[in-house]
Amino acid sequence: MGAWGTRNFENEGSQDWVFDLIDHKDGGMVTDTLARIINNHEKLEVSDCEEGLAAAETVAALVGRASEDYPEDPLDRLDILNLIGTKALRNQAINAVKKITADSGMRAAWEEAGQLAEWEAVQAGLMKRLEI
After folding, report:
1. DSSP alpha helices (H): ranges in 11-104?
2. What is the pTM of this model?
3. What's the pLDDT score for residue 3?
């Protein structure tokens, strides 16, 4: 396993996703990822959660509320996505985060590691940043 931590960009999956987003200059990747999380009817795998949380973090960054650990180079280039952090998009991001925190492989991993409360606090902070 590569990098791993309770913050959303302390893992390689989220970092890879956000760099792919900027490399492809595809704002649709944000909405597609959030929709995939919300519409999944099975327990979400850790890799899906990493991508979903990266997408939600990107929405927060679009409205000027980026996390401290959002990678700097992609953060500086979000304008190339031609994506606006509308209320509907923020709500979609919140719903994805709620689904991930309610029951997912990632939640189970943090519970097993004894760091569930710390991870949940990070996600609560993300939802708060999305609710502006």
Report:
1. 12-24, 28-39, 46-62, 72-76, 87-102
2. 0.95
3. 60
